[in-house]
Amino acid sequence: MLIAGGSGLSPMASIARGALRQTDRNIAVYFGGRGPADVTAAGFLAGLAPDRLTLTAAISDPAQAAGWTGRQGFIHQVAIDDLGEELRNREIYFAGPAAMAQAIATALHALGVPRSQVHYDEFY
């Protein structure tokens, strides 16, 4: 599972491409931004392997939600809402703004996801 926000899309896209080439795993990608314009950049991921990759996009700024019919909320919370305790059984990679990365790390710890299954770079 890959979770990204903002510039974190680039490393997660690279990981997705590599995993699709080297494994037969299904890949879930969660990508968040403040508004619809921020998340449209991730659309290309859905076309990489429509049978193996699912893309969930969400926006976090209610002021930018006019006309948006997709998911709303912080992307880590959207992933938790979808997968809950199932996250304990997943390898999780994430990248993005510092506040988002900290929120994801805190949430995964609270859910009891083993540290050995959580992968990220602190590039902020």
In words, what does this structure look like?
It is a single chain. The longest helix has 14 residues, at 9-22. A six-stranded parallel β-sheet has the order 4-3-2-1-5-6, with helices on both faces. By secondary structure, it is an alpha/beta fold. Strand 1 (2-5), helix 1 (9-22) and strand 2 form a beta-alpha-beta unit. Helix 4 packs parallel to helix 5 (98-111). It is globular, with a radius of gyration of 14 Å. It contains five helices and six strands, in the order E-H-E-H-H-E-E-H-E-H-E. The two termini are 21 Å apart. It has one domain (2-120): Nucleotide-binding domain of ferredoxin-NADP reductase (FNR) module (Rossmann fold, 3-Layer(aba) Sandwich).
Q: What would a concise description of this structure say?
A:
The chain has 124 residues and is α/β, with parallel strands linked by helices.
> What's the N-to-C terminus distance?
21 Å
The dominant shape is: globular
Q: Per DSSP, what share of the residues sits in E-state strands of 2 or more residues? A: 15-25%
Q: List the quaternary state of the chains.
A: single chain
Strand line-up of the largest beta sheet: 4-3-2-1-5-6
Number of distinct beta strands: 6
The main β sheet shows up as:
6 strands, parallel
Structural class: alpha/beta
CATH top level label: Alpha Beta
Number of domains: 1
**Count of helical segments?**
5
Gyration radius (Cα, Å) is 14 Å
- What is the helix fraction of residues, given as a range? 25-40%
The chain-level mean pLDDT equals 92
